[in-house]
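Is this the right way to post C-alpha cells for a design question? Let me know if I should format differently. Anyway, here goes:
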C-alpha cells in the first residue's frame, strides 16, 4: 500500500466515521422525537376523552394528600398515561378547550367555550362541523386537536383542545435535535480527522522504511552480481563456456531481472504516473503493444493474435495502458502451452474499457487463479527455472488497474485462462 492509498483510506475512514455518527444521532434523535410525539398525542387523547365523558365539562378534582405521599413514580406516570394527566388541581385552570354538543338529529344542542377566550361560539360550531365532515374521530386542525365521541344520553360531542404549547415544544425539540446532530457531526469530522493523522503516521513511516529497504537492497545486490558476472565472463574467456559457468550466468540474469522487478514494484506503489490521463485511442495502443510482442511469441512457437477492434477513445494514461498490456502479454507468452494460442481482446462497455488477454493453459483446471496476483506466487511449486517469471508481473498489473479505479480477475475455462481487466 502506497502513501496515496493510505491517504485515500484515511479520508474514507473519516467520512465513514462522520456518517456513522450522524446516522446514530439521527436514529437517537428520531426515537426521542417520535416517543415524545406519541406520548403527547396519547396525553391529548386522554384529556379529550375525559372531556367527552363528562359531556364537555371539567369536574373539580379533590386532592388526596395521603394517597400521594410516598407514591412511587412509574413509567406510566412519566409517559403521560393514567389519572396523572387530569388528576391535578391545576388541570381545571390550565386546560383550554371548547366543545359542541349535538343531539340525535345532529342539531347543535350546546356550545361550551367558557374555558377558552380565543374562540367564539359561532367559530366553535364551524370547527365542529369540519371535524364531523372529516369522519376522523381523533385528529388535528391547526393548533387544535379534536375528538368526536358518542354521548351517553344520545347524540355526539366534538371537543377541541388548544395544544399550541405542546406543538411549540415538539417543534423546539425537533429543531434542537437537528441542530445538535449537525453541529455534532461537523465536530466529529474535525476530531476524527485530527486523530486520523496520528493513526496513519506509523503506517506511513513503516511504508517509507520498507521502500527504502527495497531500494537500498536492490542497489546493494547489484554490486556483487556485477562482480559475479565479470568473473564468470573472464572464466568463459579463459577456459571456454561449460555447463557450470553457463548455469552461473543464467542465475545472474535471473537475479538481475528479479531486482529490476523489485524496483518496479516500489515505483509502481510510491509514484503515480507522470503522464496525466487523456483521451487516447486505446485499441491502437493495445494493437501496437501486441505487434511489439509478436516476434517474441513467434520465437517461442506460440500464436499471438488480436481481435479486430475499431477506434476506442478512453481517458487513461497511455503509459499505464502500454505497461498493463505488456505485463499481461509477457505472462501469457511465458505460461502458454507449447504451440498454444494467445488472444487479445479490447472493447468498450458503457464508460468502461474492457481488456482481456487469454492463453492456452491445459493444467489450469484445478488452479486457484485468484492467487496469481500475489507477489512472488508461482503455480510451479518446484520453482522450475525454465519458467522465467518472478511472480511479480501480475501484481504490478493489479496495481496499475487499481490506480485507474478498475478491477482485474483471472478465470479458467475449457483449457484457456483469461485475464480480464475493467478500466474506468
Amino acid at each position: 500500500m502506497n502513501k496515496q492509498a493510505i491517504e485515500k483510506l484515511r479520508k474514507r475512514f473519516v467520512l465513514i466515521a462522520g456518517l456513522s455518527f450522524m446516522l446514530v444521532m439521527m436514529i437517537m434523535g428520531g426515537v426521542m422525537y417520535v416517543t415524545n410525539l406519541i406520548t403527547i398525542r396519547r396525553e391529548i387523547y386522554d384529556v379529550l376523552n375525559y372531556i367527552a365523558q363528562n359531556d364537555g365539562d371539567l369536574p373539580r378534582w379533590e386532592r388526596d394528600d395521603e394517597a400521594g405521599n410516598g407514591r412511587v413514580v412509574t413509567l406510566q406516570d412519566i409517559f403521560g398515561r393514567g389519572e396523572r394527566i387530569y388528576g391535578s388541581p391545576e388541570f381545571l385552570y390550565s386546560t383550554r378547550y371548547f366543545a359542541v354538543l349535538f343531539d340525535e338529529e345532529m342539531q347543535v344542542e350546546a356550545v361550551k367555550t367558557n374555558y377558552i377566550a380565543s374562540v367564539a361560539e359561532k367559530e366553535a360550531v364551524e370547527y365542529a362541523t369540519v371535524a364531523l365532515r372529516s369522519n376522523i374521530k381523533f385528529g388535528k386542525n391547526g393548533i387544535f386537536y379534536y375528538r368526536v365521541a358518542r354521548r351517553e344520553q344520545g347524540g355526539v360531542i366534538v371537543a377541541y383542545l388548544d395544544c399550541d404549547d405542546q406543538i411549540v415544544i415538539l417543534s423546539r425539540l425537533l429543531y434542537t435535535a437537528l441542530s445538535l446532530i449537525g453541529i455534532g457531526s461537523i465536530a466529529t469530522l474535525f476530531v476524527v480527522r485530527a486523530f486520523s493523522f496520528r493513526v496513519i503516521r506509523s503506517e506511513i513511516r513503516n511504508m517509507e522504511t520498507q521502500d527504502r529497504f527495497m531500494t537500498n537492497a536492490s542497489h546493494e545486490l547489484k554490486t556483487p552480481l556485477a562482480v559475479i558476472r565479470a568473473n564468470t565472463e573472464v572464466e568463459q574467456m579463459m577456459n571456454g563456456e561449460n555447463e557450470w559457468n553457463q548455469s552461473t550466468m543464467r542465475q545472474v540474469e535471473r537475479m538481475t531481472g528479479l531486482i529490476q522487478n523489485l524496483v518496479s514494484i516500489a515505483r509502481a506503489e510510491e509514484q503515480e504516473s507522470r503522464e496525466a490521463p487523456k483521451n487516447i485511442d486505446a485499441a491502437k495502443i493495445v494493437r501496437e503493444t501486441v505487434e511489439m510482442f509478436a516476434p517474441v511469441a513467434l520465437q517461442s512457437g506460440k500464436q499471438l493474435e488480436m481481435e479486430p477492434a475499431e477506434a476506442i477513445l478512453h481517458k487513461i494514461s497511455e503509459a499505464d495502458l502500454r505497461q498493463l498490456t505488456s505485463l499481461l502479454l509477457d505472462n501469457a507468452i511465458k505460461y502458454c502451452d507449447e504451440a498454444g494460442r494467445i488472444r487479445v481482446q479490447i472493447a468498450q462497455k458503457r464508460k468502461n474499457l474492457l481488456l482481456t488477454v487469454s492463453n492456452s493453459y491445459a493444467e489450469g483446471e484445478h488452479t486457484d487463479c485468484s492467487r496469481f496476483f500475489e507477489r512472488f506466487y508461482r503455480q510451479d511449486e518446484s520453482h522450475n527455472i525454465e519458467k522465467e517469471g518472478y511472480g511479480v508481473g501480475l501484481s504490478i498489473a493489479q496495481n496499475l488497474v487499481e490506480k485507474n479505479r478498475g478491477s482485474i480477475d483471472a478465470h479458467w475455462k475449457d483449457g484457456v485462462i483469461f485475464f480480464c481487466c475493467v478500466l474506468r
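Format looks fine. Someone answered above. Worth noting: Residues 320 and 400 are 7 Å apart (CA to CA). Residues 65-75, 381-386 have pLDDT under 50 and may be disordered.
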